[in-house]
Amino acid sequence: MRIDIVTGLPDILTSPLNESIIKRAQESGSVIIEIHNLREYTHDRHQTIDDTQYGGGAGMVLKPEPLFECIDALQQARKYDEIIYMTPDGERFTQSMATELSLKQNIILICGHYKGVDERVREALVTKEISIGDYVLTGGELAAAVVVDAVVRLLPGALHDSTSAMSDTFQDNLLGAPVYTRPPEYRGMKVPDVLLTGNHKAIEEWRQEQRIKRTKEKRPDLLDD
Ligand code: 6GU
Known about the structure:
It is built from 8 helices and 9 strands. It is α/β, with parallel strands linked by helices. A 5-stranded parallel β-sheet has the order 2-1-6-5-7. The protein has a two-stranded antiparallel ribbon with strand order 3-4. β3 (about 50) and β4 form a beta hairpin. α4 (about 95-100) crosses α6 (about 140-150). 6-chloroguanine binds near residues 86, 88, 131, 133 and 135.
């Protein structure tokens, strides 16, 4: 898979995308992630990427020209399955959306400013709009990092153990079961006996019960769907 991220603030993305599992996925060739600095697609001395909005009002808007030129250059190199605009008024990001995106070959993520991008970019270029939740961030960069993280960890070869993703919280619309590691007793608190038995069938049954119990307690809304 290849992910191209278009941003006016590339530095926000470098460190989150170059650690741990995401780093390993890039090194193993599971994913290519390229960050594109919008300023490199400007032609003026000040490398202007945003401007005030027509009609007046506070907040800057990303200009269309650098975005169109950047996306043109990318589309000349390859065909994209989705051109995604990161915006608080987009469709809410979920685990099933992460799974769908992990099956694509090439995607572009466009990071906007708080006031957003010129509407013509959305009309002419964007195929999908994603929000990571009902709150407003200063820009789409952190949201893009969230989406990339959730998608890349699902790619074959990203996790040491591919069955790990199958027991994730939200898989089957259930939260994950409690997990424990050594020691078997700590400050008087014991690891549930069943986990020490080596009886895989009993352990699986216990985990499934726990997932349902937890979901009822913490996220009953998930059981409605
Ligand atoms: Cl994708 N962008 C911004 N700026 N704020 C957000 C968001 C995205 N998702 C939730 N809040």
